[in-house]
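step: validate -> pass
step: tokenize input -> pass
step: predict -> running
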Amino acid sequence: MKFKPNQLLKSELFAACLYRFIRTYSWTLRLHIENEHGWLQHIRKGGSVLLCAWHQQFFSAIRHFQNYAGFNPSIMISRSNDGAIIAGVAERTGWHTVRGSSSTGGKAALRGVITHLKKSRLAAHIVDGPRGPAGKVKAGVIRLAHRTDSVIVPFYTAAENGWYFNSWDKFVLPKPFSKVHLRFGDMLTFNPTQDQAEFESQRHKLEEIMRPGLVS
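step: predict -> pass
step: emit ->
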């Protein structure tokens, strides 16, 4: 049986091989975790948490985020071919994936994450989506927080040695054996509002808080 390139990339075999490669690669990284205790305690006391990151930095967190599989967490991933590959890896690390993005299937995916987050009380979200622009927080993260009564916890990764891709997000891939800092920000609460100006103010505030964490 012959696979076309797109079929091969979306196959279970490819996802399994990629997961094993990423897992092996990630174990060469020396992770330093900062400020994790507070939001974990918040969940254990019955609270709900939405972890938020920029697209350029999610790779460095894959290994450590497998530790949260016991919470049955969720993440929204685009319906693109790249998204299919990422979803295959995420599912193998114990994360529930909901397919969709701001450009395709976003409303249905948002509803899916809301439903799952209300049960599990932990989700992660890429704030600038699958296509950017870089440094622009999309509105979906604020809607998720409002609908699930979740605190938002920004997280940032920084590699002491890494490769920077020539992509819209300047994607960061830490070099093997590099020390990688995974830093969680403070818990942020955004009260639900029907006022569009207040909603935009909340989105802009999160953007201002998170933008300094971008690696240029």
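step: describe -> The longest strand covers residues 151-159.
step: cleanup -> pass
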